[in-house]
Amino acid sequence: MRTQVAIIGAGPAGLLLGQLLYKSGVDAIIIEQRSPDYVLGRIRAGVLEQVSMDLLDQAGVGARAHAEGLPHDGIELLFKGARHRIDLHELTGGSRVTVYGQTEVTRDLMDARAAAGLTTVYDAQNVQVHDLASQNPRVTYQKDGQTHELACDFIAGCDGYHGVCRASAPADLLKTYERVYPFGWLGVLADVPPVSHELIYANTERGFALCSMRSATRSRYYVQVPNTDKIENWSIDQFWTELGNRLDPEARANLVTGPALEMSIAPLRSFVAEPMRFGRMFLAGDAAHIVPPTGAKGLNLAASDVGFLW
Ligand SMILES: Cc1cc2nc3c(=O)[nH]c(=O)nc-3n(C[C@H](O)[C@H](O)[C@H](O)COP(=O)(O)OP(=O)(O)OC[C@H]3O[C@@H](n4cnc5c(N)ncnc54)[C@H](O)[C@@H]3O)c2cc1C
Fold this sequence. Notes:
alpha+beta, 2 domains, eight-stranded mixed β-sheet
């Protein structure tokens, strides 16, 4: 098999890059180690910055995000018990964020790829990248018990933090920087209406809290906990009580509680690898850097990387 760009990973970075290249007439094949159902089943970020919305539009897949996403013109910062609204729209000269789940972005990109008849190899095992410094890099992988080879002009390493691409970069060229924070975020996803129309970032003596959302009926909440804390220490009722304790009276009064669709503790850290190019292989998204999940920065940074790479 041969293609111009071999994209490793069908997360948002890989799928978006594939669609933008297709729109530009560049041939690309995506190699993904998981199944389509697994990729679509991952619940992750949910806020799209303007740059991500613009790139989805350029990729021709922005229609549903515009129709179903919740546009937000601002955010609220809560400290010392008072909320202060930051008008993003006015301060940035017209930008806004759109609440729209990463899962839905992934679905839109996968659907567009399938509709265009583009090749994505799912369930690829033992993916390896070769000859990065040459004019003829290659990717090998196993599927259905057979070894396959994909010859290409360029490799895009969009395979996330645990992927093979960064791990295959020459050790003498790769520099990495990491900071592990002494806290994590206990997060709950629940089918309850959000406490407020816009996101609330709360600084309190009990620790940080974030009121986010995925839709008008699905909320995403976080409270900061020590990084030694364990999910077994928390019941959903304890979570709602602690979240309420970190909100102002108005938000607390609006807090609707319910069972958790998902509840986990995410350790927080920052990780940066440089450079992002090794011969004919380029890194994009979580493959190159991990940021704390505030404001869906990881998803938006992945999209931004792809915008520059494309
Ligand atoms: C569990 C989790 C929860 C998150 N929650 C939030 C959140 O609430 N808010 C927020 O802002 N951000 C969140 N993030 C971060 C955000 O989702 C990421 O920044 C974003 O997904 C980055 O996109 P990506 O395409 O670069 O990488 P990924 O989404 O990680 O995609 C990489 C793809 O490569 C595939 N892959 C990996 N290794 C290989 C291989 N060897 N061969 C082939 N394919 C491979 C993976 O299966 C995956 O499909 C979360 C991340 C994780 C992991």
